[in-house]
Amino acid sequence: MIHDVLFGKPLISLVTVGFAGIVVWYFLSRQRPTTRLVVQILFFGLMTLIIVGSGIEPHRFQGYQSEDPQALLVILAKSLWWVHLAWAVIGFIRLYLVLEGSPQEARLLQDLVVGVVYIGMTLSILAFVFGVPIGTLVATSGVVAIILGLALQSTLADVFSGIALTLGRPYIIGDWILLSDGTEGRVVESNWRATHILTGANNVVVLPNSFLAKLGLTNVSRPDETHLLVLTIRIAPTRMPASVRHVMATALASCNSIVREPPPVVALKGLDATALEVELQFRVTSPSQRVTARNEVLDLVYRHCKSAGLLLAVPAAASILKGDLPTEESARPPRVTPLELIEAIPIFATLTSDEKQKLAETTAVREFRKGDIIVREGEMLPSLMMVRAGIIAARHGDEERGRLAPGDFFGETGLLAGMQEVCTLEALTPVIAYEIDQEAFAPLLSERPVMAEDIAEDLASRAERFRDSAALPPGQARSAHAILKTIRTIFRA
Fold first, then answer.
1. What share of the chain is helix, strand, coil (3-state, %, to 5)?
2. What distance lies between CA 50 and its chain's CA centroid?
3. pLDDT tens digits in sequence order for the chain, 493 residues long
4. How far apart are CA 419 and CA 485, in angstroms?
């Protein structure tokens, strides 16, 4: 019965089985490639069985007349057999042509092989189904290919360059790259034609692959995305180079925006009568942090230089007399008295000169040795302390949340808002601080509401930088508005 159905009218059976295979294959999920391959092989095997049993030769052209009623069935049957053969081969390619650890290259190789299979299928159908002389066709198409190649030279160059870039893998989606023409940004898309780069200016630059392949390329994201920055600082030669190097190293150690490992490097580059040239080398977590880190390092270099009594050198191009150059004997480093420090801290900017002077007269000097715990987590400081020299680490549990440098202040959480410290403050180097108690501070806050607002803003920003709000005790994580309200309530009482 089955033999009669399949081989009684083989052409009709071939066409029926061929179209049935297409329908079944179409409705199978793409998420089940093995099942699809098995179905393709089963239908192709069944069609081959019918062809062999009925004596049809799909690999040979058998002439037929256009008025022959079976001509259309022969064309459909042979064409469907070649299509199913190609799909079975492609199923094997998609499933088993895999490069371990290189999905992008594997996909590209699969696409190339699949393209060759489709071309072979098309030429086979033309030759063995329609009797087209392939040799003559290839010779004729060669001239056409030359013409098309010249017309599409730029596009083809982009395509082949895209293949080369994909196989070479100088970058992947998400990498930050720097090109020799100055273009810099993160790769957001890469296709056969072009590569799309999102720049720091939030613009998308589209570069043809042929153009990109000719440029020198630096992949900033490999082996990781940490990025090296180099800053050159010129210091007046009024101290021994070793002392200057120590101050620069301390400035880098107090920076919160740079990577700790590998540690930053301070290199002495040159020395003459006008300046000691120092090169600071440090890393940031990603290229997007360069501006933030550079700004913080420059600010800290200035603060530590002022704290240590170092003078910045005049520019190399400046015209000066030899007698005007500072020396170890004649140099007059800036003073860092309590008054000078108060004038340098922005939150005291609204005070008058007399108020600053009175506040400075109430300060007391506090000194801490390296490793001293200034205040522990959960304790409350009763006074405001301004860092005169040294570095202080703020730790929450075993995690370091940030560092304080000369010009920073702490203790305002207990003095002004009645809050406990949520970070342990430890002296990383010998520290000198100026202490201001609540008695001296209370009348200033009541008369200067702007200063209270500045302190509240500083408290809120420091909470974001040093503290994890989810880990704070109830009532400790507060906004600037809530902190300001607390300050006003305390000092009105």
1. 50, 20, 30
2. 59
3. 455 545 557 777 777 888 888 887 777 767 777 777 787 888 888 888 877 777 777 777 766 655 556 677 777 878 888 888 888 887 777 777 665 555 555 666 677 777 777 778 887 777 777 777 766 655 555 555 555 555 445 655 666 676 666 666 777 888 888 888 888 888 888 876 788 889 878 888 888 877 787 788 888 888 888 888 999 999 988 888 999 999 999 999 999 889 988 899 999 999 888 889 999 999 998 888 888 999 999 999 998 988 888 888 888 766 555 555 665 555 566 667 788 887 877 777 777 888 888 888 888 889 999 999 998 888 888 788 888 889 999 988 888 888 898 888 888 776 666 677 878 899 999 999 988 887 777 777 677 667 666 666 666 666 566 554 434 444 444 444 554 555 455 444 4
4. 13
Whether 80 and 19 have beta carbons less than 8 Å apart is answered as: yes
What is the distance between the alpha carbons of residues 480 and 472, in angstroms, rounded to a whole number? 16
pTM exceeds cut of 0.70: no
- Under a CB-based contact definition with an 8 Å cutoff, are residues 10 and 47 in contact? no
Owner of token pair 């720097």? 178
202: left (phi over 0), alpha (psi -120 to 50) or beta: left
**Which position has the token pair 């192709």?**
44
Reading phi first (left if > 0) and then psi (alpha if -120 to 50, else beta), residue 418 is in left
Closest by CA to 97, choosing from 112, 81, 78, is 112
Instruction: Report strand pairing: 194-199 vs 409-410.
Output: unpaired
> How far apart (Å, rounded) are the C-alpha atoms in residues 492 and 486?
10
